[in-house]
Amino acid sequence: MASPPRDQAMSYTAKQYDFRDKPGDYARLAQELTGLLGGESDRIANAANTAALIFAALPDVNWAGFYFLRGTELVLGPFQGKPACVRIGLGQGVCGAAAVQRRTLVVPDVQRFPGHITCDAASRAEIVVPLLEAGALIGVLDIDSPVAARFDEVDARGLETLAALLVNASVARVPR
Ligand code: SME
């Protein structure tokens, strides 16, 4: 989204998505995100708006945000939700597992995921999408839900598309 003129306040209202047509709603969300990121290449700014859009649009979500790879750790990036743990080692928790495996992990019940890291006790289900830039891991998108089995393969594909939009829009690298 281009910067508004100084005398024009920016106002954004998240469209309502009911996700009864999940693939369709994810396609509309991808379109909306494309517009939101258009023209901006700063990765932190774009990650902040991506987290805000996902948090506003997806029902039954209590945390949505990013961890970026710094050395051998994932470090907390822009997010919406309660304050969260700052550093996650590769291989630790759902985030670290998805990062090492470089694949999206859908966890229906976090209490049954060995090593799950609790940031918000309300979280029951989680999905983590690795962020890959030209094949290199740069971080993860992490979303939590208070509803067990909240995420499925349609969410996985839809969120992978949103994550790819963020990676491709943002040429500025987060310092590692
Ligand atoms: N539950 C995550 C930690 C991050 S918080 O959910 C925001 C994990 O196990 O990696």
Number of strands: 6
Average pLDDT confidence is 91
Largest sheet: 6 strands, antiparallel
Q: Beta-strand percentage?
A: 15-25%
Low-confidence stretches: 172-176
CATH-defined architecture: 2-Layer Sandwich
Bound molecules: methionine sulfoxide
Kindly report how far apart the N and C termini lie: 26 Å
Figure out the total of helices: 4
Oligomeric description of these chains? single chain
- Read across the widest sheet, the strand sequence of neighbours is 3-2-1-6-5-4
CATH topology (level 3) name: Beta-Lactamase
Count of all domains:
1
Q: How many whole angstroms does the radius of gyration measure?
A: 16 Å
Based on secondary structure, the structural category is alpha+beta
The CATH class turns out to be Alpha Beta
Description:
There is one protein chain. The chain has one domain: Beta-Lactamase. It is α+β, with helices and mostly antiparallel strands. It has a six-stranded antiparallel β-sheet with strand order 3-2-1-6-5-4, sandwiched between helices. It is 32% helix and 24% strand. Methionine sulfoxide binds at residues 63, 84-85, 88, 93-95, 116-117, 119, 123, 126, 142, 144.
Quick synopsis:
The chain is of the alpha+beta class.
List keywords for this structure.
binds methionine sulfoxide, about 30% helix, 4 helices, about 180 residues
